Amino acid sequence: MAETLLSVGLDVGTTTTQMIVSRLTVENKASGFSVPEMEIADREILYKGKVHFTPLSGEKLVDKEGIRALVEQEYKNAGITREQVDTGAVIITGETSRKENARTVLDALSEYAGEFVVATAGPDLESILAARGAGAIAYSEQTGKTVLHMDIGGGTSNLCLIREGKIIATGCLNIGGRLLKRDKTGKITYRSPVLSFMGELSTEEEIAHLAEQMAQALEMAAGLRPAGELLTRFATEEVTTPWLIPKETLVISFSGGVADCIETDHPPLIFGDIGPALGKAIRESALCRGEYILGKETIRATVIGAGCYSTLLSGSTVFYRNVQFPLKNLPVAEFAPGISYEETVVLSIAGEERFSYDRVRQLASQIVQQVKGNIYVALQADAAKALGQSLCLLLPPERTICCIDRVKLTPDSFLDIGAPVGPALPVVVKTLILSQ
Predict the structure, then answer these.
(1) What Å distances lie between residue 383 and 162, 363, 405, 424, CA to CA?
(2) pLDDT (tens digit, 9 = 90+) per residue, 270-303?
(3) Are strands 16-28 and 180-182 parallel, antiparallel or unpaired?
(4) Alpha-helix residue ranges (DSSP H) falling in 294-404
(5) What is the DSSP track for 406-425?
(6) pTM score, two decimals?
(7) For residues 152 and 172, what is the distance between their CA atoms, to the nearest angstrom?
(8) DSSP assignment, residue 8?
(9) For residues 329 and 414, is the Cβ–Cβ distance under 8 A?
(10) Is 373 helix (H, G, I), strand (E, B) or coil?
């Protein structure tokens, strides 16, 4: 029998803040004589909120109370309460993640939005969520084509290279429509520090030149122009070297607010930024001379990715004892023999496809010797239940144990684990990267 999860996605971006509510249907895809194979079989969007301008207090601070009021109203509009929410993600993207109080806002939204909605930021995750929400990954899987997806927002462009439905690489550039803001007369009211290398930007010709340079940097990232200094200048702090694409035929896919300006001409000052100029420059660049597509979702791609695709399921042969779900914000550490783990972490064990009985016993003994508190383990191999049972034999009954498998983690990530859905556990892997 299928089970469902109510998921919320919230994207606090450089320009806009959006929320969606979706229903995830979980089914057992295995036969009646096999180990259960739980999968998210369907994703149905129940509510799409309005596209709001992100509330700011000046140019440097996100308006914390404004965000809280916005989310509270969206919950009322959707007809849900925080107690009903099972999973999802709150993400702060683009230049907003660099605001001085971004971490405070993350914490406030995570606490308010629901028991298992998580707060996360980071260009890698943003790139993947946008590519999923726009349908680029599904398009690559269905057609077998290699796709470079570009989510071009207000402050950054998140890139995701996809081959036959598999994510090959991600990247991020400081390119977006709100890096320069203008009033109704065309006067500049805000200029991002990332444009410090540019000269005067007071005339329409100078702004058009800026947009052309941004488009050229995107061409370099796509391998359509030799990589040069321009690409390095627009690179983010997280991407310090040019992001090079393999020499192969690419389909370019676009989402983000600027994507809506690629095929449609808008008056230059309609949005109070350079989005229309950047969209025109992209349309006239090499990015649109070959095969390209606009995402099924453009401005909402990231928030749909957050609400519909941020949650994964563990394997079905999990083990847990004395666990109070949900578990939130558990830091991940790569397990290494001989290291003592004094603080609470999730031990990530990868690189082994199969575990013999002797290997499971050896690993359990090492973990017991090295971990002083609660034991949380994430295996890539399908052996969590056997490891958990072995740990039980070595530990007193009051010790907490949670072992999950078929989950690949990196040491710079955090993990949330929800209450069981059938024999599996819903998990959200997140990366907390906030620039100073």
Answers:
(1) 30, 11, 7, 13
(2) 999 999 999 999 999 999 999 999 999 998 888 8
(3) unpaired
(4) 301-309, 357-370, 384-394
(5) S----TT-EEEE-S-BTTB-
(6) 0.77
(7) 10
(8) E
(9) yes
(10) coil
